[in-house]
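debug: dumping io for the single-chain case to check the tokenizer round-trip. Nothing else runs in this session.
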Amino acid sequence: MSLPLKDADSIYFGGDWNKASGEPEPILNPATEEVIGLAPVATSGEVKAAIASAREAFDRGPWPRMSAPERAAILYRFHATLMARRADIVRILVAEAGAVASILPIQFDFPMMLSKDAIDRGARYRDTPLPPGTIPNAAGGRSLVGGVIRREPVGVVAAITPYNFPYLLNVVKLFPALITGNTVVLKPSPFTPFSALVVAEAAAGAGFPKGVVNIVTGGQDVGELMTTDPQIDLVTFTGSDKVGAAIAAQAAPTLKRLHLELGGKSALIVRADANLEAAVRAGMAYLTHCGQGCANQTRHLVHNSVRATYVEALAQAHRAMKIGDPADVSVTLGPLIRESQRARVEHYVEEGLRGGAVLVTGGRRPSHLSRGFFYEPTLFNDVDNNSVLAQEEVFGPIGAVIGFDTDEEAVEIANASQFGLSGGIFSSDLGAAFDMACAIRTGGITINEGGSAPNSPFIAPFGGFKRSGIGREWGEEGLNAFTELKSLSFRQI
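debug: decoded output
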């Protein structure tokens, strides 16, 4: 394909496009295995130059010293440019990330809503006054005292994003960091660099001061430079818990602030009184993006009285999915990102069978597709919650059904996990479901599908407990994550 990019062979830092001097990396379309382009790869010198540029822009440039409305004016222009390039960005996401038509609203429209919300909120940032009071003074009278609490930018932010929702994660890290006055160095996954370079093109024409936005490409070595460089003040990373732990270790010597949005093995609880049609519809959501989603609810805890009915309905929905190239808008299940990820999925299928789980449907590569990293949607029943299949994040199209008999048992199973990112409960007894939701240790949970979806009228903070991460993204909490609090006090003399 012809990429809708002007500078696909360059990286962006210091306000300029710079030819990357590393060996260009061929980027595959995961549905066809065809090379869609050669991605630039930054060398260590170029990464250090990008970090130095961001440091200079923060320490001496105008960006952190502008008012919030002044920054917002540039960011609204940046946002509008990205909106105008929706067709180009969608085209890249389909070819580069294997995104099917049904999830493009999550891949593009949802992050644009979140980004605008960040600008709107950040433009309204004001100092918070402390209540005035009086204290005795040396002259025998009383002095008036007061103060304010200010939110100031943390400094230079390193943003490292994965391949599954690359555009979404690029922009929902950039906009909150920038509106609060930080400068940013962004590194996308080496599998999905072009959805970051198109963002760089929009940034180049938006009017940012030199060095405020920097986008470099490359692999693990580039990421490690960013997480260890003392000029970086905060690292925001989305990816696996194992990589998150490595980043925490790398950042520790320089005591960097960390925001880590990591893995999940979330539970969907279906009570005996659930609307099964709605529960099955929500249950299918674990296959979003071929299962490549940290918040996908891959453990289905189903009351034993309705489990057989639920499993059969879910299996029928699996069999009805159309697997193939996302360039076909009728396709509902696209590919995994690479052969290595498909091999990982196959490993977990073998583990499930070895552990005694019952394979209901799937468990193989689709026979009609000779190219592309495809795998059938796979459902296991009678899964032991202590098994590898129930405890480890697969990041692929495998669902595990676990039976339960009481609410207390369901909560115990849901909490028996090293992760705690999302979750869901289906029940006609809203009070009982609410009590269960409060008892589950997870960062976000919906009842009867809830409202925290791409078309939600409100924006809830997103993040996890335990090994699912540190901190929150989206909304007010996500904005505040990129700030430091400063207390200022004064008195009458």
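debug: round-trip ok. The longest strand covers residues 142-153.
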